[in-house]
């Protein structure tokens, strides 16, 4: 059939609630400060880019931020959702344009995309110095609360209309994607909001189930 399918990553393609959480645990970030940064973002005191920068600062040890190799090491042991590889293979064979749109980390999203066969990746990243260490600056591409902004970029760049797009997500943060999609699927939903706004709801944790609602 063709068209486009946009996937959230954490909880949809991989067994993970949050790639940010993985990094915070790996680098032993101060939990009190993490919660305060989160509160400030959701109360609109800071934007998403500043939230990224302030969270990254919590990983500093002895005046030095982590090396990119440590970021990779913290994230590389991801586990795919059942059926993910098989599902993506079938969709690629049917000429769908596939996308990952995640407010998580691009290093992980790129590894996941390579593993399953999705080339179009939108996720957040970091800047590094000449030796490969984080320099404290962010590469802010996807706002947790405004995935619709990325959807608009995708629609413009790939000349897509709303009815050309299917979106698959698991939380209220994916609802802005749903609003710009002709068909929306809540996969293993984590909250009532995403269930309410989805066209279809799948509670079984096997990504092959989305094929029940897609014309191939």
TrEMBL record:
Gene Ontology biological-process entries: L-serine biosynthetic process
Protein's UniProt name: phosphoserine phosphatase
InterPro entries membership: HAD-like_SerB, HAD-like_sf, HAD_sf
Segments traversing the membrane: none
Pathway: Amino-acid biosynthesis; L-serine biosynthesis; L-serine from 3-phospho-D-glycerate: step 3/3
Keyword Magnesium listed: yes
GO molecular function, one term: magnesium ion binding
Keywords: Amino-acid biosynthesis, Hydrolase, Magnesium, Metal-binding, Serine biosynthesis
UniProt xrefs under NCBIfam families: HAD-SF-IB (TIGR01488)
Enzyme Commission identifier(s): 3.1.3.3
Gene Ontology cellular component terms for the protein in this record: cytoplasm
Amino-acid biosynthesis among keywords: yes
Organism name: Candidatus Methanofastidiosum methylothiophilum
Cofactor dependence: Mg(2+)
Enzyme class: hydrolase
